[in-house]
Specification:
- The chain starts with 6 loop residues before the first helix and ends in a 14-residue tail after the last helix.
- About 30% of the residues lie in helices and about 25% in strands.
- It contains three helices and six strands; from the N terminus they run αβαβββββα.
- Strands 1, 2, 3, 4, 5 and 6 form a six-stranded antiparallel sheet that branches.
- The longest helix has 20 residues, at about 5-25.
- By secondary structure, it is α+β, with helices and mostly antiparallel strands.
Length: about 130
């Protein structure tokens, strides 16, 4: 059946959201950490951070479909690109992995969990 193809509009909205996420992360430097994976000894601390970390639908380059991931951190790389890391919510490992494909609209959940700074309270693109 004929219908409107919204793919390009979704891609545009995702790009806008990525730019807002980039601004939010830059407000904290070039990285924002939700779960400090280097503190694996402190299970209570990891559990608390996990409870406060955003969960998004995404996949790694080795996966065929999306699943829920805890976001561990977001980095702005040397090419000024956003790189999101996480580990599966209901999965096989707590090892951090790069999330290479993120479902439409999911980056907003990440921005929601990044706190304001004294200098940056709003990353809305006009």
């Amino acid at each position: 059946m004929k219908h409107t193809d919204f793919y390009n509009q979704y891609k545009y909205l995702d790009a806008c959201t990525e730019n807002e996420l980039k601004a939010a992360v830059k407000a904290h430097g070039k990285e924002y950490v939700f779960i400090h994976t280097e503190n694996d000894d402190d299970d209570d601390h990891i559990s608390e951070e996990r409870n406060n970390a955003p969960i998004i639908s995404a996949s790694t380059k080795w996966m065929k479909s999306y699943e829920d991931f805890y976001v561990t951190r977001v980095v702005i790389d040397n090419f000024d690109c956003v790189v999101v890391y996480g580990f599966p919510k209901d999965g096989w490992s707590d090892d951090e992995q790069e999330l290479t494909s993120i479902a439409h609209g999911q980056l907003e959940y990440v921005i929601d969990e990044i706190p304001e700074t004294d200098e940056v309270q709003d990353v809305t693109i006009p």
